[in-house]
Structure formats: structure tokens, C-alpha cells
Amino acid sequence: MNPNDVILRSVTKVAIVIILTFSIYLFFGGHHNPGGGFIGGLSVAAGLVLLYLAFDIETVRKNIPVDFKKVAGLGVLLAVLTGMTSIFAGKPFLNQTFGYFNLPVFGKTELATAVLFDVGVALAVIGTAVTIILSISEDG
Amino acid sequence: MNENVYIDIVVAVFLLIGTVFSFLSAIGLIRLPDVYSRSHAVSKSASLGVLCTLFGTFLFFLLADGYFSIRLILGIFFVFLTSPVVAHLLNRAAYRSKVELTEESVQDDLKEFLEGK
């Protein structure tokens, strides 16, 4: 008997938008407010797990064709590379810098290289969490 | 000064409603006989309690500090959206794993529907 979970699926479609938006907000708010790469990545992973629960694994894998082991590796690579760039500028490893730029939409914005490191952390967290969940859920 | 007192009273009324409804839902969880009536008590009144508490907090930050917290609005919407679905899924899982209704219940429409198929 194929259970009919139309309520779960319809609510997931609305809730996933809120979850992913809120995790992006958490990620970018991390410099001045509570949040950052770890919690932003973890809430993206939680949203993906909700998708895996509401739809089956094959459907989600077909629509998000991403190998999450490679995402974790890419995150660590990005974090190490942002640390390496400060060596080429003659500064110690993982030295951070920031500057103020006039962007077209946002106006005067503070851009920091710590965001790139945070992107690496977030990708590593997403990849690791989703890989753990998927490898537990598969049989055998 | 006078204005602050009114703000405090309005916020306090919302927080009081929220805590009272949460407390009533906890009592319902203890007192009611079976899974279905317990989840009836918990899902409705606990989510109303949480909504009132969050709205009171939102009003406090809006009126006292002038800070419009979009996170609390999102939280209110999210709890309002997901809490009934959680109760629905719990009840469904309980019914599919053949949890008995309480003895006082007189009608089981879903059983007739499932057996009639």
C-alpha cells in the first residue's frame, strides 16, 4: 500500500523555502550577529534532510545532482586556500583583511575575506552532515 | 513613563495567555486518555501558547526598542505552519501502527473507510 502523504509534501515545499532563506540569513549575519558558517551550513543540511524525509532519496538525488562528499572536500580546500593567500601577501597564515566597497545595490558594504573562509566551513558542514545521514539511511 | 506602562501591560497579557495555554496543554497531556485526544490537546493549545509568547516578545521589542524582528515573524509563521502537520503525522503513524482508541470513543470513520476499500 502506497501511503498518501500529500500534506507532508505540500508543507515541505513551503517550509523548505523558509529554512533555506533563514540559513542564508544566518550565514551572512555571522559577522555582526549570532550565526556564521557552522550554523548556516547545519541548517541547510537540516533542510536537505527534510527533503529526503518528505520525498524519497532517489528523487532528491535526481533533482540536486551533487556529490556531498565532494562538497565537503571542496569546503576544506576553500578554507585552506583562503588561509594560503595571506602567505603570498607576506602575512602569517590565515591572516584576514577587510575593506569598504560601493556596491550597486547595497551601497557602502563591508567585505571581509573571513566570508570566504566561512563559505568553506559551511560547505564542509553541509557535505559532512548530509553524507553521514545518507550513508546511515542506505541499507547494508 | 505612562506609555511604557501601557506597553508593559499589553506585552504581559500576551505572555500570560501564552504561558497559561502552554500549562493547560501540559495538563491535557497528563489527563486525557489516549494518543489521539492527547495530541489534540497538545498540538492546538501548545502552538497557540508558543504563538502568543512569540508575538508578545515581538511586540515588546517593536514598541520598547523600535526593533522590528523579522526572525520572530518568521518563527510565528513557521510554528503556525508546521505544528499541525507534526500532530497529523504523529496521529497517522499511531493509527497505522494500530494504537487503540480509548474505550469511551463511539465512532471510527477511518477504520470503516480503510476496511471498505
In short:
The complex is a heterodimer of chains A (140) and B (117). Chain A has helices at residues 6-28, 37-54, 57-63, 68-88, 114-137; strands at residues 98-103, 107-112.
Question: What does this protein look like?
Answer:
The complex is a heterodimer of chains A (140) and B (117). Chain A has helices at residues 6-28, 37-54, 57-63, 68-88, 114-137, and strands spanning 98-103, 107-112. With 140 residues, chain A is mainly alpha-helical. In chain A, helix 1 (6-28) packs antiparallel against helix 2 (37-54), helix 2 (37-54) runs parallel beside helix 5 and helix 4 (68-88) packs antiparallel against helix 5 (114-137). In chain A, 22% of the residues are buried. Chain B has 117 residues and is mainly alpha-helical. In chain B, 82% of the residues lie in helices and 0% in strands. Chain B has helices spanning 2-31, 35-65, 70-96, 109-116. Chain B is built from four helices and no strands. Chain B is elongated. Classes of the chains: A mainly alpha (140), B mainly alpha (117). Chain A binds chain B through residues 3, 7-8, 11, 14-15, 18, 22, and chain B through 71, 74, 77-78, 81-82, 85, 88-89, 96.
| N-to-C span of chain B | 68 Å
Query: Which percent band covers the strand fraction of chain A?
Result: 5-15%
Strand order of the largest sheet of chain A: 1-2
Largest sheet of chain A: 2 strands, antiparallel
- Please tell me how large the radius of gyration of chain B is: 19 Å
Element order of chain A: H for helix, E for strand: HHHHEEH
Oligomer: heterodimer
Radius of gyration of chain A: 18 Å
Number of separate helices of chain A = 5
